[in-house]
Automatic annotation (TrEMBL):
Pfam families: T2SSE. Residues 1-41 are annotated as: Disordered. Residues 113-391 form the Bacterial type II secretion system protein E domain. This is CpaF family protein. GO terms for molecular function: ATP hydrolysis activity. It comes from Comamonas koreensis. PANTHER family: TWITCHING MOTILITY PROTEIN PILT, TYPE II_IV SECRETION SYSTEM ATPASE. Belongs to the GSP E family.
Length: 466
């Protein structure tokens, strides 16, 4: 650790330094012992609380300056950092506290900076997928796709803000009235979204999406009942045959997990470029280039969109392009990439059905300024997309593949599709729902998939003859 980074800011009181409001008014003379009078004692207790709050804000500003370095410090280093900064802060503002009180405040601040209050056990619980905070009283978590209200809560809204700012500070992200919304990636790959007043009426609202340390594989998803082994084999063939795939579904339906699993079928000798708003994909692949969009500053400068990254990725010699979520004008570039030699590309899109997925792609391309007729746009979509994998979350929280649909071309100026598999739950003898995927009895028509299958058959025959 760099000792210079622990050097406290400020050398002492001066007229240019603003004093703390009310009870933190600078006073001359040495620190005095704690008062004995009851009213004065109450006032002094409030002074210590104010000191802690103001010093905490000061520490957060220092942590923002330190950035990622702070996240690598040990608890002992953080405690030393807090002590030095607090001592400087007390001298700078001539706060009338004694050595014991200063030590108590420093210990409390160290605990605040090394722990995350009621969030700590939830972040450490591997079963928790999402943490949702609606003001200081309400904490909800998602386990196995089902939301549950937690018994724990924060002390007040200020407590929520302190913990959230503690999370955001090493990321270099500010949260205040001028920037009341923040969306950021956590160091472990998770995601945090925060919105505060005046936009959030009932107190700070926080959404944390946790990142799995062991991403689900296709085999895991089959064992979890997300889809059948037959569907898994078709998906594997489609990926290896370099078919273009869109994963469609609603919020928290498992789109990213499925996309991650599908990417595991990509041969190891191919170069993959992933593009996301917030990097969530964790591909188990030897050659991956990860790109992440960047929000602009308050005046809009510095903004780099997914569309910008997608255009640039075409110059990076990708074998495959994977877009974490298609939600805007980048759909045009993705379609063009799929149609101009970048086969095997994939992405996710928010839609409730395969047909809605196609409508949404058409709508987004239109909003992005597609120059051409509706029919030409539909033809481009039909030529680009080979398969749509529809995924959803059931009422019991389970995530299931609801439909595997192939895009077959154009019929009467409309995109034509055929459904290969459909999810239909059956009621078993015990009265419980049982997963079932019904085959529509239709074989895939994709030229890419059939060509790959024939090549595999020929390779197998040649090997057997030798």
């Amino acid at each position: 650790m760099n000792k210079d980074s622990l050097a406290p800011h400020g050398a002492g009181p001066s007229p240019e330094n603003p004093s703390l409001a009310d009870l933190l008014t600078p006073r001359p003379g040495p620190a005095r012992p704690a008062p004995a009078d009851a009213s004065e004692s109450l006032q002094h207790t409030q002074l210590l609380a104010d000191l802690k709050n103001h010093a905490y804000e000061h520490l957060l500003s220092r942590i923002e300056e330190l950035g990622a370095e702070f996240g690598r410090w040990s608890q002992a280093a953080i405690a030393q950092f807090v002590k030095l900064e607090l001592d400087s802060f007390i001298r700078l503002h001539a706060v009338p506290v004694n050595e014991q009180e200063a030590r108590q405040v420093a210990e409390a601040l160290s605990r605040e900076l090394t722990g995350l209050g009621p969030l700590q056990p939830l972040l450490e619980d591997p079963r928790v997928e999402d943490i949702l905070i609606n003001g200081y009283r309400d904490i909800y978590v998602s386990r196995g796709g089902m939301l549950e209200r937690e018994a724990s809560h924060f002390k007040d809204d200020e407590h929520v803000l302190r913990i959230v700012r503690r999370i955001l500070a090493p990321l270099g992200r500010r949260l205040d009235e001028s920037s009341p919304m923040v969306d950021a990636r956590l160091p472990d790959g998770g995601r945090i979204n925060v919105i505060i007043g005046p936009l959030a009426i009932d107190g700070p609202t926080v959404s944390i999406r946790k990142f799995r340390k062991d991403p689900l594989t296709p085999k895991d998803l089959v064992q979890l009942g997300s889809f059948s082994e037959d569907i898994c084999r078709i998906l594997e063939m489609a990926v290896k045959a370099r078919c273009n795939i869109l994963v469609s579904g609603g919020t928290s339906s498992g789109k990213t997990s499925l996309l991650n699993a599908l990417a595991s079928f990509i041969p190891s000798n191919e170069r993959i470029v992933t593009i996301e708003d917030t990097a969530e994909l964790a591909l188990n692949h030897s050659h991956v280039v990860r790109l992440e969009s960047r929000p602009g500053s308050f005046d809009g400068s510095g903004h780099v969109s997914i569309r910008d990254l997608l255009v640039n990725s075409l110059r990076m010699r990708p074998d495959r392009i994977i877009v974490g979520e298609v939600r805007s004008g980048e759909v045009l570039e993705l379609l063009q990439a799929m149609n101009t030699g970048h086969d095997g590309s994939m992405g996710t899109i928010h839609a409730s059905s395969p047909r809605e997925c196609l409508y949404r792609a058409e709508m987004l391309a239109g909003f992005a300024g597609f120059q051409g007729s509706e029919v030409s746009l539909r033809r481009q979509i039909a030529n680009a997309v080979d398969f749509i994998v529809q995924i959803g979350r059931l009422s019991n929280g389970r995530r299931r593949l609801l439909s595997l649909t192939e895009v077959t071309g154009m019929t009467d100026n409309m995109i034509s599709t055929q459904e290969l598999y459909r999810y239909e739950a059956q009621i078993g003898p015990d009265g419980q729902e049982q997963d079932q995927w019904v085959s529509m009895g239709i074989s895939p028509h994709s030229p890419k998939l059939l060509a790959w299958w024939r090549a595999q058959q020929q390779a197998g025959s040649s090997g057997a003859q030798r």
